[in-house]
């Protein structure tokens, strides 16, 4: 049987990253540190894109 | 600043992943993954702190030199990467699964490390080259390799048919050995980074980071040839 996506952990991980992003933007704004979120955003986008098709 | 926030998030992520594993994989899997995973990360962190690869803020809850609550976050990261990698790769292809795990884990550890530096939750006293305001280049790769090492160890032991609590004892006995082996991976990642830095300052390192972090999701999203992420 093909494994399915772990929806709950992915949602919690996404919320975790959003909290980090908000903290980063609100209190310790650094453009370079914001770049660190790009790979996670790309993975999120890729999983959503392939999940739909 | 705000060390409680990250520790609370670590506990929440650990609890959500434990609950999910318990429901979808069963009680035994969940207990073994998260119990042994926590032990592995705790020992790994103790070794890294002693070797001054990483240094934690005094405001973090610590057991000896290991951060007790922050260490909860990594078994959860490994579980998320392992579950997503299983979705991405064909069944029973352990090498493809571990390769995908290596590529997935840095996507979540890198933003954590970058934010942690900004808030002084932890720092990297290492002399190695850094990017993103102080994250050593070897850190994302070493977390990916260590996550794959743990997943590989877990898969191998779970495949051995042992009676009663045999698997749990095998995992318990093996965890300190694997934590020791993980240092070799950290060292290897650091050596690779140092060698790349010798050639063309940071340019090669930035290209390598681009290949490691940016290309796998693009390959997966646009169904490019199966070179980096193996797709069924």
Shape of chain A: elongated
CA gyration radius of chain B, whole angstroms: 18 Å
- Average pLDDT taken over every residue of chain B: 89
What is the percent of helical residues of chain A? over 70%
The low-pLDDT segments of chain A are none
Shape assignment of chain B: globular
Structural class, judged by helices and strands of chain A? mainly alpha
Spatial strand order of the main sheet of chain B:
1-4
Percent strand of chain B equals 5-15%
What's the main sheet of chain B like?
2 strands, antiparallel
What structural keywords apply?
heterodimer, A: 53 residues, mainly alpha, 3 helices, B: 232 residues, two-stranded antiparallel ribbon, two-stranded antiparallel sheet, 8 helices, globular
Provide a descriptive summary of the structure in words.
The complex is a heterodimer of chains A (53) and B (232). With 53 residues, chain A is an all-alpha fold. Chain A is 77% helix and 0% strand. Chain A has helices spanning 7-27, 31-35, 38-52. The radius of gyration of chain A is 14 Å and the shape is elongated. The mean pLDDT of chain A is 85. Chain B is mainly alpha-helical and 232 residues long. In chain B, 70% of the residues lie in helices and 5% in strands. In chain B, the strands form three sheets. Chain B has a two-stranded antiparallel sheet with strand order 1-4. A two-stranded antiparallel ribbon of chain B has the order 2-3. Chain B has a two-stranded antiparallel ribbon with strand order 5-6. In chain B, helix 2 crosses helix 6 (166-200) and helix 3 packs across helix 4. The termini of chain B are far apart. The chains are: A mainly alpha (53), B mainly alpha (232). Chain A binds chain B through residues 2-6, 8-10, 12-13, 16-17, 19-21, 23-24, 27-28, 30, 32-33, 35-40, 42-43, 45-47, 49-50, and chain B through 1-2, 5, 9, 12-13, 16-17, 19-20, 24, 76-77, 79-80, 83-84, 86-87, 91, 104, 106-108, 110-115, 117-119, 131-133, 135, 213-214, 216-218, 220-221, 232.
């Amino acid at each position: 049987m093909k494994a399915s996506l772990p929806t709950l952990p992915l949602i919690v991980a996404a919320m975790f990253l959003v909290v980090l992003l908000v903290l980063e933007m609100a209190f310790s704004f650094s453009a370079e540190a914001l770049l660190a979120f790009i790979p996670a955003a790309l993975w999120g986008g890729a999983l959503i894109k392939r999940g739909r098709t | 600043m705000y060390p409680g926030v990250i520790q609370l998030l670590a506990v929440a992520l650990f609890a959500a992943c434990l609950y999910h594993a318990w429901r979808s994989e069963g009680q035994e899997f969940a207990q073994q993954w998260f119990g042994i995973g926590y032990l592995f990360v705790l020992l790994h962190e103790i070794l890294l702190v002693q070797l001054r690869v990483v240094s934690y803020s005094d405001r973090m809850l610590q057991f000896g030199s290991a951060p007790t609550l922050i260490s909860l976050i990594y078994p959860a990261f490994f579980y998320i990467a392992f579950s997503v990698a299983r979705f991405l790769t064909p069944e029973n292809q352990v090498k493809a699964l571990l390769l995908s795990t290596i590529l997935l884990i840095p996507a979540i550890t890198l933003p954590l490390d970058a934010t942690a530096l900004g808030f002084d939750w932890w720092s990297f006293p290492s002399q190695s080259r850094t990017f993103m305001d102080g994250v050593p280049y070897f850190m994302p790769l070493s977390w990916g390799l260590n996550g794959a090492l743990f997943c590989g160890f877990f898969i191998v032991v779970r495949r051995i048919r042992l009676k009663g609590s045999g698997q749990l004892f095998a995992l318990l006995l093996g965890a300190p050995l694997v934590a020791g082996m993980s240092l070799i991976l950290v060292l290897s990642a650091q050596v690779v980074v140092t060698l790349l830095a010798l050639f063309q300052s940071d340019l090669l390192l930035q290209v390598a980071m681009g290949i490691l972090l940016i290309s796998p999701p693009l390959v997966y999203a646009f169904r490019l040839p199966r070179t980096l992420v193996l797709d069924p």
